[in-house]
């Protein structure tokens, strides 16, 4: 059983909090981020959920760029700090399509560029485009972790504070159904980019033959090199993200749920989907457990929760479970988030 919230992220460079909507994963992700920052780590907290609640939770206005929420300069908390951002899906999609469009136009004859633009306008509303955009942004943000180098060996353009470098990036994700789909994408995107690279390679071989005949310009060779560089960088980025997600030493997946029938069933199914993709679950957090010693009503609720928690432990043996009691008051602000570790129940809670 995890001893406390910091055990959920201990040693990890990237942590994902996921679960069914309304179970409290945003609160748990934020409380863990605060605990990590107070313990001296440099933390970036990211909400990928379109229904952003992170800013409301902290009582701060958050944007798509990092906003400083905690800054420990010295003392017991060392250089711990917490920055947070709420990912802007529309901006991420626009940027993603702009970059993809530039790559596709470079691959196509000029007289087809208008068709490419038409395709991209349709693609902006197509299923999967939003997920691909969010994935690209997630990959970019994981490169903010100190030691996780940019695929091109450069500082990411998303880094508004490149001198910071984070010890850990914590993601508060969309409900589990969306996240399951998202986690499938790195492999798909790698394969898609591999296909473009092979097509590019064939084109370059044809171009090399033209050079021998005096039919290819230096400008065309420069364009080929630029396209190959873009494709290789994207391919490397997705492959690195896929490698990171499947490395339990660097990546922790924490599933948050309520002790009720549907959240337990969905959690078990989601853990199976992750396992099939080679992604392990580090911890389970059963949130808002009813106290057994606060009146008959809550005691009856506690008794109803027990078999669901038992089902969870039986279906996912070996995955540590942290039980958190229902808070007496709404959790908001830094003080509220710092009270969350005190809600942890001891070993043997059923």
Automatic annotation (TrEMBL):
GO terms for molecular function: ATP binding; ATP hydrolysis activity. The keyword Nucleotide-binding applies. Coiled coil: none annotated. Residues 13-340 form the ArsA/GET3 Anion-transporting ATPase-like domain. The keyword ATP-binding applies. InterPro entries: ArsA/GET3_ATPase-like, ATPase_ArsA/GET3, P-loop_NTPase. Keywords: ATP-binding, Nucleotide-binding. It comes from the Bacteria. SUPFAM superfamilies: P-loop containing nucleoside triphosphate hydrolases. PANTHER family: ARSENICAL PUMP-DRIVING ATPASE ARSENITE-TRANSLOCATING ATPASE, ATPASE GET3. Belongs to the arsA ATPase family. This is Arsenite efflux ATP-binding protein ArsA.
């Amino acid at each position: 059983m995890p001893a406390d919230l910091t055990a959920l992220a201990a040693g990890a460079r990237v942590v994902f909090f996921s679960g069914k909507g309304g179970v409290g994963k945003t609160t748990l992700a934020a409380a863990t981020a605060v605990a990590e920052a107070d313990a001296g780590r440099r933390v970036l907290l990211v909400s990928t959920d379109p229904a952003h609640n992170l800013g409301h939770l902290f009582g701060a206005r958050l944007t798509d760029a990092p906003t400083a929420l905690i800054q420990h300069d010295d003392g017991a908390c060392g250089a711990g700090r917490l920055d947070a951002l709420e990912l802007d899906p529309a901006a991420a999609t626009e940027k993603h399509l702009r970059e993809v469009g530039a790559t596709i136009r470079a691959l196509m004859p000029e007289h087809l560029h208008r068709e490419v633009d038409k395709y991209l306008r349709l693609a902006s509303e197509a299923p999967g485009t939003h997920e691909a955009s969010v994935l690209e942004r997630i990959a970019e943000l994981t490169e903010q972790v100190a030691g996780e180098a940019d695929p091109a060996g450069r500082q990411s353009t998303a880094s508004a504070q490149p001198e910071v470098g984070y010890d850990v990036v914590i993601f508060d994700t969309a409900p589990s159904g969306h996240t399951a789909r998202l986690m499938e994408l790195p492999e798909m995107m790698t394969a898609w980019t591999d296909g473009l690279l092979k097509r590019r390679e064939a084109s370059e071989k044809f171009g090399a033959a033209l050079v021998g005949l005096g039919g290819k310009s230096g400008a065309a060779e420069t364009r080929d090199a630029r396209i190959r560089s873009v494709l290789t960088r994207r391919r490397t980025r997705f492959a690195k993200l896929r490698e990171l997600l499947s490395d339990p030493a660097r990546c922790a997946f924490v599933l948050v749920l309520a002790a009720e029938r549907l959240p337990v069933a969905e959690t078990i199914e989601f853990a199976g989907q992750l396992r099939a993709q080679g992604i392990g679950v580090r911890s389970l957090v059963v949130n808002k457990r009813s106290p057994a010693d606060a009146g008959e009503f809550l005691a009856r609720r506690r008794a109803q929760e027990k078999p669901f928690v038992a089902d969870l432990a039986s279906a996912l043996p070996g995955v540590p479970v942290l039980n958190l009691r229902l808070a007496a008051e709404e959790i908001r602000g830094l003080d509220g988030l710092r009270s969350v570790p005190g809600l942890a129940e001891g070993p043997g809670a059923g």
